[in-house]
Write the structure tokens for this entry.
Amino acid sequence: PRTSLHSVHNSVHSSPDMRIVSGLGSGQGAPRSTSARRGCLAGIVSPPRILVGGRLHGRSSLHPARASSASTEVADAFSKESRVTTNDDYVPALTSAMWASFLRPYRSNYEECAFAVSDEMVEGRIPVELKGTLLRNGPGLFEIGGKKIPQPFDGDGKVAMFSFGGDGAKPFFSTRFVRTKAFVEEQKANRMLYRGAFSVGNPAGGWLYNPFDLRVKQIANTGVVRWAGKVLALYERDLPYELRDADLKTSGRTDLGGAIDSPYFSAHNRIVTEQDGSRRLVAFSSSESMLDNQITVWEFDEAGRQVEKVELRLPGAAFGFFHDVAVTENYYVFLENSVRLDLKKFGTEYMFGKACIAECLEHREDIRSKVHLIPRRGEQRAQRRRTLECPSSMFSFHHVNAFEKGEMVVLDTCGMRDGFDFSANMETTDVRYYESNKGRGAYIRLMIDLSSGSVQEHKLMERACDFPCVAPSVVGKEWIHSYVYGSAANEEKLWGPPQVVAKLSFVDEVTVQQKVYNPGKDRWCQEPIFVPRPGGEAEDDGWILCIVYDSAVDRSELVILDAKSMGVEATIKLPFAMPPGLHGSWTDAYLGPTDVDASPFEMKYDIRNGVV
């Protein structure tokens, strides 16, 4: 039976990996670490067990590189949050060969193209009800003029789309670079001209270097969404770039006719369904203002008109790194990361061109993360903001979802409890990266009690994970099923590159079961995107679309999974490798040519021949 949120919240000893803090900055009597709690309970807590074939065993002794059978992992007699069911069947050994396999697609793809997907490219049967377009964005260039871009986050954006007409029509694929001003100028000059967030010194190679110029290159490489009839390529330190349907040609920067009244627009957004059935796009901007952070949140209706706006300043949060937002019926939910500027590195390295500005962001274990709840409606919303301190420090890029229930607000996020290393890149990092937990995302549930001002933190599974999604119908509402990409290993002390897609289904508020799609050896999953089945009633009635890179053949493919069973329904095998993307979205609109079967449209162009 499902337990109530309040009964779970009040059960302080329900888990060995649960953290709690009462009130802002209090934390009295609340153990700060899991190890401290385990020490207190050492005499009464039984060790973790594995349920295999109906029989309980001690901790699994399976070698990381060997297959693991379907199992249910039970934490201890007091836990309701670590019980998981998995069906993954391949966990790679952490070797240099594995690392090379994972990194292989991180190279420039200069070719732009568009074509109808032939029958020979398709394995299985594409669902006839699948109608609409998958949009993907991510870095497409890893060098400029022969000079390497070691950090993928700095690569110029390249948008791709798979468009499905349904009813047996051929899918249509298209991909093209976003023509930002910086991209066009650098391609014409055939050298770097602008500083990226991860650039060191003067990327143009000259001796002039202004460390006080904190502007970064506008690269439109992070997100993509279709709203108000426009395809928008997104980067959080710029305005959106509008792309044309079908050929994805860049129309230019847009402020949606003045609706975006800020120089920045978030790469992440939420599309929420209101009680009257209308939809809203919720987006935000974040910028440093001395030691504070200036936040602006907008809501746009389906015509692109600004219908809500709130502005506020978060004291001391200049470097809180607000990359994502969650939304409930009454609140915008922001998580302030435990990040501060490393003044020593800033003064001794960045100022002299020896480190990038991002490397000066330091995870601070002595500073707890904070949750900011900003009212969506009413007067004086900035003054009515609630700020609550979390039990621990963490760093989170991406949130799963949030909802309200009585006096409780629940936020699920992919939190890195040991922070994130911004100095890590393809030149400085090897497979030993996974010997540390820095950068390891955990599926974390924050349960925020508005009446008491306390926050509980629950880690719901051992698998390292990130890039989550839920069904569009439950954004901002209580949900049952979440989807993430993650490591093949579902173990506390072992993790690796993202390889699988895991479906988490809640049994109660802090217990999840997993179904896992594991593509196998040398195959690497990217972000899952949920597509609802037209007319479907169940929350998980639909499909998961996921790009998978096959290192053995150096090709990418789009895998269509049944969102209920996580079984493969169809695969579109591309004749080339796509660079690993960052984020995507689904639109119900078909964006391909009017009749792709009768009038096949094809395009192929190499940007090294010149960019216009």
Q: What stands out?
A: The CA atoms of residues 195 and 215 lie 8 Å apart. The first helix runs from residue 5 to 10. The helical segments are 5-10, 34-40, 96-103, 181-189, 343-348.
